[in-house]
Amino acid sequence: MKIKSAQFVVSNTDWRKCPSGKPEFAFIGRSNVGKSSLINMLTGRKALAKTSGKPGKTRLINHFLISEQWYLVDLPGYGWAKVGKQQRGRFEEMITGYLLNSPHLTCVFVLIDIRLEPQAIDLEFINWLGENGLPLAIVFTKADKQSRNKNIRSVQMFEKALLASWEELPPRFITSSRQGTGRNELLGYIEGILASLS
C-alpha cells in the first residue's frame, strides 16, 4: 500500500462526534509503547503524531485521514499510572465508548513492547476486545531494541500467555519504528481488509 496523503482531521472525547463514512483502523497500547512513532513510520510523516518522552501524551481520540480512503485513529494509551482515579475513569469511558460504538471501526491494533514479559494489563485488554467481538491484531514494537532471538522468545511467551484464553490467536506483527520493520506487512494487512470491504 502506498500512502498518498496523511492529514490530521479532528480530535474528540466523544465517539458520536467522530467523522464517519470511512473504515477506521485504531491504534492503542500502554503508555510509552511507541505508538506515535509507529504511526509516523507507517504514514511516512515524521511529525504527524506527536511523540514525547513523557507517557500519556495522547488524551483524545485523534482521526487522521489516509489517502482519502480510511481513517487511522490514534487512541489514548491505557494504564495511566500518573493520572488521578477520576481522570483515568474518564479516559476509560472515552475509549470503551469509541471501541464499542463506532460503526466504522474495522480493526484495533494493540501495541505491545516486545522487550517486556507478558503484562496482565495487555492480556486483559486483548481478552476484553475478544470477548466483545472486536477485530484486532497485535503489533509488537521496538524490535530494534534487542536481538532477533530475544524477539522470537518474547513473541512466543506472549503467544503462550494468550493461548490460555484464545483458541486461535489474532494476527501478529513485529515492528521497529526506527528501522521501518513491519511497515509493508502492516500496510499490506490494512490494504487486504480494505479490498475485502469494497
**Global morphology:** globular
How many structural domains can be distinguished in the coordinates?
A: 1
Rg result = 16 Å
CATH topology: Rossmann fold
Separation of the first and last Cα atoms: 15 Å
Number of contiguous helices: 5
Mean pLDDT: 90
Proper CATH architecture: 3-Layer(aba) Sandwich
Q: Which stretches of 5+ consecutive residues score pLDDT under 50? A: 52-56
What is the topology?
Elements: E1 6-12, E2 24-29, H1 35-43, E3 61-66, E4 70-74, H2 85-101, E5 105-113, H3 120-131, E6 136-141, H4 148-162, E7 172-174, H5 183-197
Parallel strand pairs: 2-4, 2-5, 5-6, 6-7
Antiparallel strand pairs: 1-3, 3-4
Summarize the structure.
This protein is of the alpha/beta class and 198 residues long.
Fold and architecture overview:
With 198 residues, the protein is of the alpha/beta class. The chain has one domain: Rossmann fold (3-Layer(aba) Sandwich). Helices cover 34% and strands 21% of the residues. It is built from 5 helices and 7 strands; from the N terminus they run ββαββαβαβαβα. The protein has a 7-stranded mixed beta sheet, with helices on both faces. Helix 3 links the parallel strand 5 and strand 6. It is globular and about 40 Å long. About 3% of the residues have low confidence.
